[in-house]
Amino acid sequence: MEQALIDYINTQRKEAEEFSKQPGCWMGSMVSPEDTTYWNERVPSGTLAEFQRIELEEDAYYATADAYSKSYARSFNFSTMSDAQLQEMLKDACDSMERERKWAEEEEKRAKEEEQKLAESLGIDIPTLQRWMKEAA
Q1: Is residue 37 part of a domain?
Q2: What predicted TM-score, i.e. pTM, was given to this entire model?
Q3: Number of folded domains in the chain?
Q4: What is the 3-class SS of 48-86, one letter each residue?
Q5: In b/e form, how buried is each residue of 95-129, taking b as 16+ CB within 10 angstroms?
Q6: Cα 126 from Cα 14, distance rounded (Å)
Q7: Domain range holding 34?
Q8: Which of 17, 23, 77, 117 is paired with 50 by a 20 to 30 Å CA distance?
Q9: For 87-108, what is each residue's pLDDT tens digit?
């Protein structure tokens, strides 16, 4: 295995260990570079470049699946895409998820405002309104 990949793995493992020392914090770490069975299967060439390419393909797949759907993500052949295409796909998926998150926040805010208006129009507090709505459901 290439020394650059070993160094990368060890750096991540050290970062995870240090982060996990903080109260209430946990971070997973990569498999030890000594586990050659795992790494030979994960990165056949043993190079950092191949590892980073595999990670980029996986990131693009999972972001696309999360943003849209698994079946949509499966429709792409990520291994034939250039790094630039993968990065663009990853960015698009992340942007879509961010828009969705912002939309959900706005909808939640609007719902709370409507709930407040309804409670005020009935002359009751929100917990009472929520209880009444639950009982009526």
Answers
A1: yes
A2: 0.77
A3: 1
A4: HHHHHHHHHHHHHHHHHHHHCCHHHHHCCCHHHCCHHHH
A5: eeeeeeeeeeeeeeeeeeeeeeeebeeeeeeeeeb
A6: 49
A7: 1-46
A8: 17
A9: 999 999 999 999 999 999 999 9
